[in-house]
Hints:
The structure is a single chain. With 196 residues, this protein is mainly β. Helices cover 13% and strands 36% of the residues. An eight-stranded mixed barrel has the order 2-3-4-10-9-8-5-11. A hairpin with a 2-residue loop joins β6 (101-104) and β7.
Amino acid sequence: MIFLGIGASAQPEPASSKQSLADFLLEYMEVRYPGLDVDGDVLYVSVRSQRLHHVRGRVLLRSYVISTALNGLGERLNSFRTPTGLHYIRERIGEGLPPWSILRERRPTGTVFDSTGTPDSDVITSRILRLSGMEAGVNEGGSVDSFSRAIYLHGTADEASLGTPSSHGCIRMYNRDVIALFEEVPIGTLVVIYDN
């Protein structure tokens, strides 16, 4: 498989050590969510390690450095926390935009952030993968609904903050990485967020 446009932050994983992580994750998901099809694309967000692991066909393809919420984990509206549990990608936004394009309220502004300028942690850039929760009362419905909370995987204008919790609830990525991941995963891709 060829990966185009992946930045230095995306790392090919050694076949043995990291594959065991994918195997454990998928076994856990099959027990926790009986009947769930985990043979396609699965994105695993490890809050503790600040990494996103992309698994396809039960094989770990790549790991990416990310940032989850500065305020930690939580599902409540206006908590500025990253929700846990099982999600899926419900919307893909920004296809074809130049790298570092600025998006506000999921719409391109027509401007591109100057990546050599002062970082701005509030600017969403390049691509958005919008998540929807799949666990009623945990991350779906009412005041805990991840889709209503506008929880995304997205590029950031503050790449220096990646690798440590620093977001307002979303999962931030390097711009090159989110563009590469965007090209790899379709709507419906499973995304699971755990603190382990």
